[in-house]
Amino acid sequence: MNDAFIEDTTAIEAAAVSYLTAFNRADAATVISTYADDGVLMAPGRPATVGKSSLAKTYPGIFEKVSFDMKYEIKEVVQTSAAWGFVRSTTEGTQIVKATGEAHSASYQELFLLRKSTDGVWQIARYCTVNVTP
Amino acid sequence: MNDAFIEDTTAIEAAAVSYLTAFNRADAATVISTYADDGVLMAPGRPATVGKSSLAKTYPGIFEKVSFDMKYEIKEVVQTSAAWGFVRSTTEGTQIVKATGEAHSASYQELFLLRKSTDGVWQIARYCTVNVTP
Prior knowledge:
2 copies of one chain form a homodimer.
Chain A: H1 9-24, H2 28-33, E1 35-42, E2 49-50, H3 52-65, E3 66-79, E4 84-97, E5 103-116, E6 122-131
Parallel strand pairs in A: 1-6
Antiparallel strand pairs in A: 1-2, 3-4, 4-5, 5-6
């Protein structure tokens, strides 16, 4: 808390973009690496996934069932302290249920709460994504 | 940013609880009063509602259509700086579509990002809620 405030919004945004682009290419390993050890995923249709070892099970399960072709838009990037910041974004595109091949348009909004690690890396501490389309 | 860090998790939690209980009794005025002027709501089935004047239209629209009987559980309260903190919670209960009287069980999770105003009041800066049940 007593660390000097160093403006770091570029790195904060880059961490969220790293997540969004890895998610879109179904790259579970990179997705999981963008989280802090205590990271939490809050996504539609499931309870919160808490901690990196649980996240490492959840994401492959998502990517097995659905493929995504989404474009993101960063709505805001705010650094709230030396070690914390948040990013709000939207994603829009197509998702395909792999079992059936059924494709439909999809639209989400995302709130990333990011924390700077002791190594100076911005990581996802909490992440909430919610569907815009019903 | 240079304000001294004063431990304030009780007030942070109280702000989130104030929102959750006002929402449950369809008290739009109190719900809206828990937000900062630049507050943002991210909820299922709609784009982000940005700013208090937009929030003042969105919530009455929700309460006209649906009534809620939900119990909340606070999962974590974290103060990240002198003026910022977050709360993660879950809500579970019944919601009723007013037009049809149709009731169904519902379960959500919530992420509140709160900021302390210059008057020392913790307000909702960003809020994301997502359904646990599909």
